[in-house]
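How a chain folds remains the central question behind the approach discussed here. No coordinates are needed to read the tokens, only the vocabulary itself. For completeness, the protein is quoted in full, as a sequence line and a line of structure tokens:
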Amino acid sequence: MSSTTLFKLCRAGYVALVMMLGTWFIQQGVSGEYSMLFSLLWIVPLLLPLKGILTGKPYTYAWASFILCLYMLHALTLVYVTETDTLFAVAETLLIGALLIGFPFYARIRGRELGLGLKKKK
């Protein structure tokens, strides 16, 4: 798979995740299940790597995986405890799982194309 194809897939998945979680958390805030402040603050960590992901910077893709782990924890917890939002929780889990695989692969492939990497000791 080329880095361009992987970049487009990862970027589309990330934007879909931001839209999906943003909509869900804001809806939870409006319905009163969560406070609106909590709902808005919960989205902020996901927006931190937005610029680097949209521009395709391999370093951003590498460290953004750590942020996705927080949301994977949320998704797996929601799968376990919810009775009403099971479909949403499974969709969130699958999307984040795909991104957790795609992000490091893109970072590695694109980093090699750009000549980035760790220098070997002589």
Remarks:
- The mean pLDDT is 90.
- The longest helix spans residues 3-31.
- The radius of gyration is 16 Å.
